[in-house]
Structures are given as structure tokens and as C-alpha cells.
Automatic annotation (TrEMBL):
The keyword Nucleus does not apply. SUPFAM superfamilies: S-adenosyl-L-methionine-dependent methyltransferases (SSF53335). GO terms for molecular function: methyltransferase activity. Keywords: Methyltransferase, S-adenosyl-L-methionine, Transferase. GO terms for biological process: methylation. Pfam families: Methyltransf_3. This is Class I SAM-dependent methyltransferase. PROSITE patterns: SAM_OMT_I (PS51682).
Amino acid sequence: MDTSKNVRITDELYTYILDHSTPPDPVQAELIERTHRSFAGPSGMQIPPEQGTFLSILTALVAPRFAVEVGTFTGYSSLAIARALPEGGKLLCCDVSEEWTSVAREAWEKAGVADRIDLRIAPAIETLNALPSHPHIDLAFVDADKDGYVGYWEALIPRMTPGALVLADNVLFGGHVVDPAATGAPAAIRRFNEHVKKDPRVEAVILPVADGLTVARVKG
Ligand SMILES: C[S@@+](CC[C@H](N)C(=O)[O-])C[C@H]1O[C@@H](n2cnc3c(N)ncnc32)[C@H](O)[C@@H]1O
């Protein structure tokens, strides 16, 4: 196996990547600062800026009429998706925290995208299972409790339109996915990655973006 094409990301290279990627818009920049200030510990759950830009680019390419996010927190990834939706496109956000998503609601208002977003506060699996069962979702981003990933996948895939994208975050889990003795969240991600690998309904790739991002395209 030749890994020589894979660049190890040093602090210096990461700074370079950020410096040469489209930066967060003013609302996103303020949201990063606010999340760090208000929720110092959990703030690490927020996707990093380059991943947000990547989400916006993918959303603009897919032009979803209906998108779903599982795991909203203070709203950074939802902002990245919502700002790139086409005219009339909608985003359904799933989370269990009123406290964290109240910050997201403020950011959506400031960014002028609140009218495109429907936030449901409930266990995401309940929200997903209550959606119509026919294919109607064009883009999904999964970034919530890792034990739930396989269930979210199974709830989402039959509802995805042909050619739709399913994105899943943290699929390298700090590198711990290669540890067969892993327990807890990294073990759940290992189960998820095996599940995706065996699913003939999609073609999928794990990209080493941030903590690992699965990009799966639903076959037509
Ligand atoms: C990693 S954070 C999401 C980060 C967000 N995507 C961002 O970029 O800022 C995970 C979120 O999943 C939510 N969550 C955890 N368990 C959940 C569940 N069973 N159903 C819905 N949301 C859940 C948490 O409340 C938390 O806000």
C-alpha cells in the first residue's frame, strides 16, 4: 500500500489550508467565537471552517429541494448548508438540545436563512422515522450521537432521491477507528463504516477532511 500521496497535516499546513480556503462569512465567524465563549468544552463538536465551506460547495452542487441535518448544536453546519440552498430549498434540523439550538436560531435569523429551516427538538430517529417513507431527501448530513449512526442511515437511505448525497462526520474518530479493541463511540463508528461498506445502495468514500467525512451517493 502506498500512502506517500497522503499528506500528514501539521499545524503549519492546517493554517495554510484555512488561509487558502473561502473563510467563514461574518455570521459564521461570530458563531465560532460565541460557541467557544458560551460552551467552552462542547465547542469542539462544531465542524471546522474548511468543512463548513466544503458543505456549502456540496450543497450548491446538489441544489437540494429538501435537506436533513442530524445534529445541529449551535448551528454552524446548518448555516453552511442553508446559505447554499437553492431558491425554495428547505433544511430540516434534528437535535435534542433547546439550549444549544437557541444559539443556532439566533444565527439563522442574523444570516437571513431562518425561513428555510425547520428545527425539530426530539431524538433524531423519531423525527426521521416520522418523515414520509418515499424518496424525497436530496442531501443529508449526519453529525450526532455515534451509536445512532446505523439507525439514522437506515432511516435515511430509503428516503433519499436517486443521486442524493449522504454525508457522515467523525468517521475516522481521531484515528481510533483502526483499533479493533475500541469501545464506545469509536466502536460505533467502526460498525457504521462496515455497514456503509456493505450497502449496495450507495457508492461511498471516506475523505480525510477534519475528523473524517463519508460522502455517499445514492445510486439511481
Ligand atoms: C457534534 S454535535 C453537532 C455539531 C454541528 N453539526 C455543528 O457543526 O456545529 C452533535 C449534536 O447532536 C445532538 N444529539 C445527540 N444525540 C442526539 C439524538 N439522539 N437526536 C438528535 N440529536 C442528538 C447533540 O445535542 C449535539 O447538538
